[in-house]
Amino acid sequence: MEANAISRRNFLKISGLAGSALCLGTYFVAEAKNENLITAANAEKAGIEMNAWIHIDTNGKVTIVDHRAEMGQGSYQSVPQIVAEELEVDLKDIDVIFGEGNQEKFGNQITGGSSTIRGSYKNLLKLGATSRVLLVTAAANKWGVPLIDCYAKSGHVFHRPTGKKFHYGELVEVASKLTPPQDIPLKTRAEYKLIGKPLNRRDSPAKTNGEAIFGLDKKLPGMLYAAVERNPRMRGKVKSFDATEALKVPGVKKVFKVKMGVFTIYREGVAVVATSTWAALQGKKALKVTWDDTGFEHINTADIYKIQHEKLKTDEGLLLQKVGNPDAAISKAAKVIDVVYQTPYQSHSAMEPVNCVAWYRPEKLEIWGPIQAPEWVQDFVSKQMKMPKKNVIVNMTFLGGGFGRKAFMDYPHEAAVISKEAGAPVQVIWKREDDLTQGPYRPGITYRCQGVIDNGEMSVAKFRMAGQNIDHWSNGKSSGKANDSTSEGFLKPYFDSIKNVSFAEVVFEAPIPAMWWRSVYASTNGFAYESFLNEMAHEANKDQLDFRRAYLKDERCQQLIDKLEKVSGWKSRDKKSGYGVAITECFNTTVGQVVKVSRQQNGKIKIDKVWAVMDCGWYVNPDIIAAQVEGSVLMGLGAATTHEITFKDGLVQQNNFYDYPMPRIADMPPVEVHIMENTADAGGVGEPGLPPFAPALTDAIFDLTGKRIRKLPFDMQTV
């Protein structure tokens, strides 16, 4: 099962252009804000580049060109589920193919920020509905009957008075010659038959029986395999290498120095190219490399947090947002709550390690792999290889997890460089050790949170964040402006209800490649800000949810709190019985979680249950949402309690899962997921379930034990 990328020209050839098939897409009119609909026939005549295609052939088979990646988040199911709803076809009659990287054609193709559905669903609904109307119109024209007497169902158009019917394939030739109407009324939520239903994922069978093609499964004729010994320090260089023993390994063809772009610098290494994965890895083991590690700081983890702590004592930082005058209010307060929180560096550690296939030829470079951001790769690699952007073709395969790591450009660039030197298509493979020791990582961050309680009310909340700014790293230096994500995770209604509140970034730089990680800064901000709110509620002698309710006056927030209280039994719980709570927002979705913990007979803390309530507005498949929340809880549990990336003398100290341990199946608590029903626009689903877990967990531990946890990770077995 290979969701092949396909060019527009080849796709139209396959579909017989527009004469024997219906191919509907969208295009932008100059200076227009909305996309217009157009058929392939009219696009060809006008010389217009279509995108977001729906193609229906003469057999009635529907093919969707998906411009985003499928990395386990469920878009491979959700996208056809949306189209099938308005198109009135059975899901079994829909195929999905990945579009190649082409920003001019598809716009933003980045699979991240929980943006695939929330950014595309309205357009997909419109495409499905318009295709249906064209087919119904074609049937009415063929029968010579009023349009109102015809309707679509299960890939057919029926004539009510006579019961006559056509299947879609019989109508596509006529439909392809019609002009698509631009304003089609869409179904109401109450009319949905597929959307909102917990349908089984269409990719699950292929991903469990081996049919699905991931990056490592991609094969090309004459393809070679490469493993790279990279400098273990991020900015080190190759001083010299001895390939004598490596070249003795059967199958090893070439050994040469290589470098790949990592943001604004280059990472150096030595590539071993061979006829098999095994030969490449054995050749890599036999290499002898001398590294030059001079010219940059060999940083230690303890130094990172010491510097961050020291900066937060006196540095007011770059102000991002302010309401009122927090500093003046703090200076006059009789008592100030002043606490520091710390979160660790984290590896992405996706199930599928990084890999990429590249085939360089002087006139064209083609790339295949698990890629979250094809247009970024296309742009970066074309510049690095000094090749016209249109000649760099980026094809997406299935991804075995990404979490942001596979939106980066380093590994496709490295594959391209190696293919050019090897003179053949090459698959570059990263071992787990490469993945863990090379990064990039979620940045480790320290927070200073100050607040004042006056007469039981929170009058001041001042937050400062010291940690690597992802944008700072990619630009090479601080921009002089505060990190836009400093307040990420903190709900917007708080700014309307807290008299004095501010967020500032205290600039911190380090020679460590840092980048987005699932839920980005909300994953760390959420722990600090929500933990602080729980401490403020305790100081005010208020129930944590009642405390939040007083400041989250938005109707949707109030309804979410009502639901969270009800499903978790919050109001009926016993005091000091191990309940904790947190509510965060990211990517236009708010999630509240209640965590229940208890102490076992052996004295160890156990997570008994997690209740999660998600308000993501319009949604597609509740089973996929539940799976994403469950996965977020597990990932949040690992980041909070079992693993972190640490540095000593500029070297990463973790190598594999034996020293970067993942939570085991026995550690996974029961998770009960509830989805709020409303008519708001769609928000994200894949990431917002992670940020509230850690602060809810530590709040529950405080409720049970009286111990505040302000530093992650912590050991659940020794609390």
From TrEMBL:
One Pfam family, short name please?
Answer: MoCoBD_1
The record's section on InterPro entries has:
Ald_Oxase/Xan_DH_a/b, AldOxase/xan_DH_MoCoBD1, AldOxase/xan_DH_MoCoBD2, AldOxase/xan_DH_Mopterin-bd_sf, N-heterocyclic_Hydroxylase, OxRdtase_Mopterin-bd_su_IorB, TAT_signal
All residue ranges annotated as the Aldehyde oxidase/xanthine dehydrogenase a/b hammerhead domain in the record: 209-295
What highest taxon heads this organism's lineage?
Answer: Bacteria
Q: Recorded GO terms, molecular function?
A: oxidoreductase activity
**Protein name, as recorded:** Xanthine dehydrogenase family protein molybdopterin-binding subunit
Source organism? Mucilaginibacter pallidiroseus
